[in-house]
Specification:
heterodimer, A: mainly beta, four-stranded antiparallel beta sheet, about 0% helix, globular, B: about 110 residues, mainly beta, seven-stranded mixed beta sheet
Chain lengths: ~120, ~110
């Protein structure tokens, strides 16, 4: 059974940093691209970032480019999102999602985690 | 610019059928999409991948009540024999090199 378990969320002050993790199991993690998607309170889904299966390619939404960094450790079956210079508008539930292919942004998401809440406030 | 457009809301009666629409932006009518369901207070769930020719492949455990179809730039999700647990937000998703796009979502109310 595919499982994606996010962690690392919490309350952080504007300008602060946070690192999210997504522990994957039930599939060959190193064979699939992975993404982060966020959902602000009462709003729709917003794609944040994607990384290829090997980790060699990564892309970002304009809203986070230069502040967030996606990475993965295929030996630990774990996806990461390093978030720096956080702003109030980054407040959201952050989901990790598995793509059905290995190339970044090349296929639909076929599994989702349950999410972790990030709140940016003073 | 790659954009997906969805109606904000839809409603249908218990046991009836409903057809939700996702429209691709001009010049992108050949793109495949995916449909996702998000029940209240839950994470999204993958329903299916839908190609421009109307062929589709569903996710694990998705009932036959859910089906997809296409016409030009329109992509449809039809839910038949509506049940109370179908009341949820439905999002379409597409992708291209270096970018993933979601529609704004349709909130389905089961009357």
């Amino acid at each position: 059974e595919v499982q994606l378990l996010e962690s690392g969320g919490g309350l952080v002050q504007p300008g602060g940093s946070l690192r999210l993790s997504c522990a994957a199991s039930g599939f060959t993690f190193s064979s699939y691209a992975m993404s982060w998607v966020r959902q602000a309170p009462g709003k729709g889904l917003e794609w944040v970032s994607v990384i290829s299966a090997s980790g060699g390619s990564a892309y970002y939404a304009d809203s986070v480019k230069g502040r967030f960094t996606i990475s993965r450790d295929n030996s630990k079956n774990t996806l990461y999102l390093q978030m720096n210079s956080l702003r109030a508008e980054d407040t959201a539930v952050y989901y990790c999602a598995k793509e059905s292919g290995l190339a970044a942004a090349g296929s639909p998401f076929d599994y989702w985690g349950q999410g972790t809440l990030v709140a940016v406030s003073s | 610019q790659l954009v997906l457009t969805q109606s904000p809301s839809a409603s249908a009666s218990l046991g009836a059928s409903v057809k939700l629409t996702c429209t691709l932006s001009s010049g992108h009518s050949s793109y495949a999409i995916a449909w996702h369901q998000q029940q209240p207070e839950k994470g999204p769930r993958y329903l299916m991948k839908l190609n421009s020719d109307g062929s589709h492949s569903k996710g694990d455990g998705i009932p036959d009540r859910f089906s997809g179809s296409s016409s030009g730039a329109e992509r449809y999700l039809t839910i038949s024999s509506l049940q109370s647990e179908d009341e949820a937000d439905y999002y379409c998703q597409t992708w291209d090199t270096g970018i993933v796009v979601f529609g704004g979502g349709t909130k389905l109310t089961v009357l």
